[in-house]
Amino acid sequence: MPADGGDNPTSPGRRRSVFGRHVTAVGANPEAARLTGISVPKVLVRVYVISGICAGIAGVIVGARLQSAVPDLGTGYELQAIAAVVLGGTSLSGGRGGIGGTFIGAMLIGVLVNGMTLLNVSSYYRLIIQGAVILAAIAIDRLRLRGGR
């Protein structure tokens, strides 16, 4: 079975480009990727640079939209991002996932957060609920991986 989880139509870039296959291989098993001749540090640096550029663009967009710059504006969004990715089916062990599932996970987290806002749920309980959702998704992922062996 390929490292990207099989014939996944939502990940054409990962399957069709050398860089995408290298990122998937490093995410699945860095040691195996190194043994196949992939320069793991080079791939990781490129991924972190791309991530930093995307974060910078997002910061500029948010700053322009709010017409202010606050250094701790996005505090707590990382938990929502992790929850969306895990709910979308991406394995935290690496090597499995796709953009389609992540999009669906983001929609589910958006509905969950919006619903908690409409119900005036305390911010402390929101974090607890989001953490519980992440733990449940991780438990399901582990059971799915264990069942596949």
Helix and strand arrangement:
Elements: H1 12-16, H2 18-28, H3 30-35, H4 40-66, H5 77-87, H6 99-118, H7 123-147
Helix pairs in contact: 2-4, 5-6, 5-7
Membrane topology: Multi-pass membrane protein
Keywords: Cell membrane, Membrane, Transmembrane, Transmembrane helix
Pfam families: BPD_transp_2
What does this protein structure show overall?
- With 149 residues, the chain is mainly alpha-helical.
- The protein has two domains: 1-74, no CATH class; 76-149, no CATH class.
- Helix content is 70%, strand content 0%.
- The protein is built from seven helices and no strands.
- The protein has helices spanning 12-16, 18-28, 30-35, 40-66, 77-87, 99-118, 123-147.
- Helix 2 (18-28) crosses helix 4 (40-66).
- The longest helix has 27 residues, at 40-66.
